[in-house]
Specification:
Layout: H1 13-28, H2 33-52, H3 56-63, H4 71-78, E1 81-84, E2 97-104, E3 107-114, H5 120-125, H6 133-148, E4 153-159, H7 166-170, H8 173-183, E5 191-200, H9 201-205, E6 212-216, E7 220-222, H10 226-233, H11 240-247, H12 251-256, E8 262-264, H13 275-293, H14 298-310
Parallel strand pairs: 3-4, 4-5, 5-6, 5-7, 6-8
Antiparallel strand pairs: 1-2, 2-3
Length: about 325
Amino acid sequence: MEQRDPRILEFERPIYELQDRIDRLKKEGKSSAGEIAGLDQRLSDLERKVYSGLTAWEQVQLARHPMRPTAIDYIRMICDEFEELHGDRLFRDDPAVVGGIAVIGGRKVMIVAHEKGRNTREKITRNFGMASPEGFRKALRLMKTAEKFGMPILSIVDTPGAYPGVEAEERGQPRAIADNLQQVFDIDTPIVVVIIGEGGSGGALALAIGDSVLMLEHSIYSVISPEGCAAILWKSREKAPDAAEALRLTARDCLKLKVIDRIIEESKGAAHRDPEGTAGRIQSEVLAELEMIEGIQADLLLERRRRKCSEMGAFEERGIIPFIDYRLDLKA
C-alpha cells in the first residue's frame, strides 16, 4: 500500500506530484530549459486553480496545515531585530503567547502573538497556541508598555481558542479575556492585527482588537471551531464540513461581513508553499497600515476603533417567534 505523506493534504496531491516531476527532470539534466519553463508555468497555474477553489472545510484544513508558518517563523522573517519579553508579573510566563520589542523595516513596534509550535515537543510546550490567563495578561502588559513608550502594536493571531482546562478557569480565564477586550479599546497607540492561521473564539479575539485587522488568504476566524459547532448542533463531529460552511469563517466571508479590513494574498497559493514570499507580503501590508494610521490623533484613533467594532456584522429581523412551554408536554 502506498504510504502517504501526512503533511500533504489530499487536494494538494496533484501539485506535489507535478513538483516532484519537475525536480526529477532538473536533477537528471536531460530536459530543455523550455520544457522546464513550461512545466513551471503549469505548476503555477495548478497552484492558482487548486488554492482558489477551496471549500470552507478545505480552508480549515489549510489554516491548520502542519507545515504552515507559525508566529515565530514570521517574526524571524519580517523583523530586523526582536527582543522577547516574558511574564505577566503575577503568576508565570505563558509560552502560548510570545511578545517583545521588534524592528520592522526600520520601524520599532511591539509584537504580541499566539505561538503553536512546530514539532510535537514544541506544540506541547506551547500548549498548541491555547493561552492561559497569564498569557492574556502578558499580552495586555506588553500593549500597555507599547502605549507608554509610543510604539505601535503588531498582534499576530493563530489559536484554536483559549485553554479550556480547569486550572485556567481557576486562575480567572474569562476575566483575563474580558479585561483584554475592555482595556485594548483605551490603548492610544496604533494596533495592526494579522490573523495567520486559526482565529478561534475569545482566545483569538483577546488579541484581535485593532485599528486594522488583516487575514492571510487561507486563515479562518470564527466564534467556535467547526468540530465544536457540529457537536452542538448535530451531535456529530462528522458534520464539521457543514458547520464550516455555515460559520462563514473564511477570509472572504469575514471581509464581506466587515469583520476584517483586508486579505493578504499568500505566495504561491499557500503560505507553506513559500513562507518567505508570504512573510514579505505581510511585512509590506503591516508597514502600509501603520503608515496610514500613525498620523491619526489619539482621541480620533480610539473613537475610530470603537466605531469599527460596533459596526461589524449584519442583522436580519424575522419576526417574533412564539413562546411554547414544552413543559406542558411532560408527564407528571
